[in-house]
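WARN no homologs supplied; continuing
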Amino acid sequence: MRPSILNPLFAGAAGIKGIGSKLDRLLAGFLRPSHGAAGETTRVLDLLFHLPSGIVDRRFRPRIADLPREGVVTVEVTVGKHRPPPAFNKRVPYRIDVHDQTGTLTLVFFHSYADSLKRMLPEGERRFVSGKIDWYGAEPQMAHPDHVVSAEEFDRLPLIEPIYP
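OK structure emitted
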């Protein structure tokens, strides 16, 4: 028998403001997979012990010339030329050249819409891009950056993000 003071931890999570029965069933499906199918609900305890399995650290802010061979970086860049794929071959990625005072980086987007990329990355504007750095030959590139923000929005960029299983 457990002490009665612990009983609220074993109560259903649907009692928490913002969690209704629909969200409760969804949470039970991945927090308690062996029980979720049987119709059990999520407990408050399940939410408390659903801990991150790792983090993504976006605090490293090198210049383009100092980019590492691999890893997650956040780079302040000026947006250059947009290079959309040819109309006859949609499998070619959309590329955007960005630069700083030290070099050039290519942002690569597969199956994306040119209009939204032009709004997100207007030519001549300064942006902070954050994501995994890759190299194509001797040229650095970043495929589908995790975050693209303007200088005014940089405060909202999560510099450390938890990764949940």
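The first helix runs from residue 21 to 31.
OK
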